[in-house]
Amino acid sequence: MSVFILDSNIVSFYIRQEHNIVRKVNEVISAGHEVVISPIAYYEVKRGLQAIKAEKRLKEFLALCNVLGVGQLDNSILDISSDIYCELRAKKQPIEDADILAAAFCIRHGFTLVTHNTKHFSSISGLNYCNWVSSI
Length: 136
Hints:
Elements: E1 3-6, H1 8-15, H2 19-30, E2 34-37, H3 39-51, H4 55-68, H5 75-90, H6 97-109, E3 112-114, H7 118-121, E4 128-130
Parallel strand pairs: 1-2, 1-3, 3-4
């Protein structure tokens, strides 16, 4: 069984009911795999919906979180994040902290990150990622 972690852009597609993403999530779960929301995506999506007072979408998002679950952060993920930051800085390829944390979460647990922003993650060593938007 594989575990797929949804990045914030994929969660946004899902809660907007983008048909291909909803179908892919259901297909992957039906195949016996697990789909979980990244703890970073939880923060990014929730703050965005709260900021614009999108109450209906916020309720839909929280319901999705209850069904799929949300990953948890711990210090080991923060340690890996620091290593990634230093590696990317040395290569002069910085990315946003949120992306570094999401990548570290997946690396720590051996999970696959599902994102539409593959360019952000392409230079991170040891990260498995895929793009369900382009594969559909």
